[in-house]
Amino acid sequence: MRPTRPAIVIALVAILTVATWALLRFMYASLPPLPWTMVPTLLLLALGEAFAGFNIRGRIQHKPDTKPVEPLVVARMAALAKATAHAAAVLAGVFAGFAVYLQSSMDKPTPRADFFVSAGTFIAAIVLVGAALFLEWTCRVPPGPDAEKNGRDAYQD
Hints:
Distance between the termini: 8 Å
Oligomer: single chain
Number of strands: 0
Largest sheet: none
Structural class: mainly alpha
Strand content: under 5%
Order of helices and strands: HHHH
Shape: elongated
């Protein structure tokens, strides 16, 4: 498994922002108001992934008072982090599209409320992308004792 490339995450956000904006031009009036509950949910997920990242990092580095971590657990965490980064990028793109579309309708109460919900959800999704990328980074294999002799990077992909 290769590390998540930031270009892919940025492309997902950009493409889905434009696609959502284009769809909303035709169907926003038929949608219900956006729920605000996505913001705390995404922030709690980001907190959990950041906590897992700090925990895994300490266990991989064999810090005192930590148990060694099973390699399969690290692989599963890396897969979770990669999937979360892509899913959160999709959500960020969708809600950025909502925010872009709604910024011109701030004089009406429902679009104004939807704008603030979509902007908050976009920010929470970006925080989740950051936490997922951090978790993925902490799951990297540390360098072996002969890494410097072979001219390899500090961390293997």
